[in-house]
Amino acid sequence: MITAVNRPAALHINLAAIKENTRQAKAHLKPGQKLFCVVKANAYGHGAARLAPVMEEAGADGFCVAMLDEGLELRRAQIVKPILVLGLQPAEEAALAAANDISLPVSSLDWLKEAEKVLRKEGLQLKIHLAIDSGMGRIGFSEDEDFKAVNEYLQGNDAFFVEGMFTHFASADSADASYFDYQVKRFKHMESLLTVKPKWIHVDNTAASLFDKDVASDIVRFGIGLYGLNPSSAPGSQDLEPAFALKPAMSFVSELTYVKQIHKGYGVGYGSTHIAEEDEWIGTVPVGYADGWIRKFQGFKVKVGDTYCPIVGRVCMDQFMVLLPKKVPAGTPVELISADPAAPNSLRRAADWLDTIHYEVACQFNDRLDRIYDNE
Ligand SMILES: *Cc1c(COP(=O)(O)O)cnc(C)c1O
After folding, report:
1. Whose CA is nearest to atom 15 of ligand 1?
2. Partners of 126 in the beta sheet?
């Protein structure tokens, strides 16, 4: 996909906010804990290769990504700190990971056997993290027998270095702690079966750290909070209060490319879902669903100059229209998403509008949009 730099629409990323959130996350760690910055999915849409060095300077001890290619991108960006892939990779990729000093998660004995063949051929050793499914139902060991067999297999096996053992919480962002406590118990049980001692045992994500969950974790896998977003963000729910103030880093700005007056009975957009009730001023914004600004944004209010104006008519592939209170000139700035967490067009409120979470909204803005980095 071509990043369109010669257009009046871009995501702005406030580097000062990223630095501040990273520093605060680090300062909030318990003694001895390490901060692994989660930069999967292009740093939740903010730009991984650009932000990883900034986070490193602000205190990151390592990085987490979702897949091997994202880790390789960080290595190409001169990141030398530890990189952990969180999702399962094909066993054939074990050599590529090892050659680039990237750690992989392990969920089965069969995978280890396949990976060992590849590693022996190349004379490489792979760093692994044993994934435990303690109640997320996603990846990881959950049966005692399977886990004991893996423990056995790894004894003295120099194709692997057991760097970690970890699990992921399904509800660390919830005020109700019962399922969280159940997962901790399950994880501790699995840990008790191990005789191979991993270097790092880790369970914390942003929510577990920010809401001060009482659980041991050598590493905090800190994601959403780095971008200044509260992990407790179910649509329409009351957010839990984080341990420190988060500063959103992303804003989305464009401008009106066209302004015109329409008269009573005139339609706007595909299907004419908006019909003028009287003379109206309509502005056109050159952003559409092909940028990730999806059709469900119809009706959401964006800030045109100083006024919040509703999106009228269907969002098109590359453009959408807003209803203006009066005539304003073409070229007037339009703020689609504000970095002010209290603004009605914050990422959080946009997510509410779409009936989803801001994680998803930040990731869905795609690479056709330029990312401009401010406040270096
Ligand atoms: C995405 C992810 C994280 C980070 O979660 P946040 O809520 O963004 O902090 C941590 N651990 C795992 C396994 C993940 O998949």
Report:
1. 86
2. 160
**Beta strand pairing status for 102-106 and 267-268?**
unpaired
**C-alpha angle with apex 330: 328 to 335, nearest 5 degrees?**
80
Ligand 1 centroid–CA 221 distance in Å is: 6
Task: Kindly tell me the sign of the dihedral angle through the C-alpha atoms of 355, 360, 366, 369.
Answer: positive
Q: What's the DSSP call for residue 338?
A: B
Active site residue 153: no
Mean pLDDT for the stretch of residues 196-207 = 96
The answer to whether 280 and 267 are in contact (CB under 8 A) is: no
3-state class (DSSP) for residue 45: coil
The pLDDT value recorded for residue 174 is 85
Is residue 238 very low, low, confident or very high in pLDDT (cuts 50, 70, 90)? confident
Give percent of the chain above pLDDT 90.
94
Instruction: Tell which atom from ligand 1 comes closest to the C-alpha of 38.
Output: 4
In ligand 1, the atom with minimum distance to the C-alpha of 222 is 9
Mutate to test the pocket of ligand 1, among 18, 36, 64 (most ligand atoms within 8 A of CB): 64
Q: What is the pLDDT of residue 176?
A: 85
Residue 243: both structure tokens together: 């341990």
Q: 374 pairs with which residues across the strands?
A: 14
What is the structure's pLDDT at 20?
Answer: 98
Question: Across the strands, what pairs with 308?
Answer: 303
Beta bridge partners of 342: none
| Ligand 1 proximity of 231 Cβ (cutoff 6 Å) | yes
Q: Which two tokens stand for residue 373?
A: 């980095």
How large is the average pLDDT for residues 312-340? 98
Say how far apart CA 25 and CA 167 lie, in whole Å.
20
Distance of CA 233 to the CA centre of its chain: 13
Query: Among this protein's residues, is 121 annotated catalytic?
Result: no
In whole angstroms, give the CA distance from residue 46 to residue 69.
Answer: 17
**Ligand 1: nearest atom to the Cα of 166:** 13
Residue 188 neighbours by CB under 8 Å, 6+ apart:
none
Query: In a 10 Å sphere around its CB, with 0-12 CB exposed, 13-18 middle and 19+ buried, how is residue 238 labelled?
Result: exposed
CB 198 within 8 A of CB 130: yes
Q: How far is the CA of 229 from the centre of ligand 1 (A)?
A: 13
